[in-house]
Design a protein that fits this description.
By secondary structure, the protein is an alpha+beta fold. It contains 6 helices and 15 strands. A hairpin with a 3-residue loop joins strand 13 and strand 14.
Length: 266
């Protein structure tokens, strides 16, 4: 294996993603230098895609985020294949204990508390719920005591973070809805205009302002053509995944998608 130059990957990604490229190239170069397996922080799917491109076929990647189909995961880089166990990824699951009769927690309130607790967002993973008041999240095991000692209140509610085993992790609620949109074009702005009921002019401005992500990557081009399985997120609106695309008799496109719409604060 040979060391990588971060600048050689810059043309493949947006300007805002260069710090991520720099960091992940540095990790790969550490593997080349030390010849020891390395464990990353929590990476989202877009960051893991960047890592795969950087690594190519030169190393093995294995990931785990605490449960099946987790979004954010820690990744092991290794020169040779190793049979890593779930415990090797140093992921700790927590359940948030609070007086459910008097308070209601939300994903945004939990995320806000964690993000503003003095730690980086890559030190914790997904936040999940069963839809009936039970909330859990995942974090780096080495920071377990920090989370337990520092997170004692979320919003107006007192809370206690209870470490749990992976066997106690709940099945996350899927609050997505299926929608069908008939659009004249598969351009990104046309898809978003159809589902959000905003004008393409408004959406072009939002895309240029960096409020839209495609497959977890920052984008500034509204002309990108969308395909099946693409994931699009629009800040303050929600996230959608394209499940199928078919042509209509009138030359338009029938797009089936799953939508996770941002819940408005009450």
């Amino acid at each position: 294996m040979e060391k990588r130059q971060a600048s050689s990957f810059y043309p493949h990604f947006q300007l805002d993603e260069r710090p991520t490229v720099d960091k992940l190239v540095g990790l790969f170069n550490n593997l080349v230098f030390k010849h020891e397996s390395l464990l990353t922080d929590f990476l989202d799917p877009g960051q893991r895609e960047i890592l795969k491109i950087i690594v190519g076929n030169e190393a093995f990647l294995q990931d785990f985020g605490g449960y099946l189909n987790s979004e954010k995961r820690r990744v092991y880089l290794s020169e040779e294949w190793e049979n890593f166990r779930t415990t090797d990824f140093q992921v700790q699951a927590f359940e948030i204990q609070y007086p459910t009769k008097f308070y209601k927690l939300t994903h945004s309130s939990i995320l806000g508390t964690l993000a503003n607790s003095g730690i980086k967002t890559d030190t914790f993973g997904d936040i999940i719920t069963d839809g009936h008041g039970k909330w859990q999240f995942f974090a780096k095991k080495e920071l377990q005591s920090y989370f337990e000692e520092q997170i004692v209140r979320i919003g107006k509610s007192k809370v206690k973070l209870q470490p749990i085993s992976f066997k106690e992790v709940l099945v996350p609620e899927d609050d997505s809805i299926e929608k069908v949109e008939i659009v004249s074009s598969l351009r990104l702005d046309a898809i978003l205009a159809g589902i959000s009921k905003q004008s393409r002019t408004q959406l072009k401005t939002q895309i240029e302002d960096g409020t839209v992500k495609l497959n977890w990557h920052d984008i500034v081009n509204s002309n990108i053509m969308i395909k099946e399985n693409d994931v699009i997120s629009l800040r303050h609106f929600g996230r959608l995944q394209i499940t199928s695309i078919a042509s209509t008799r009138k030359g338009k496109f029938r797009v089936v998608l799953k939508l996770w719409q941002t819940k408005k604060k009450r």
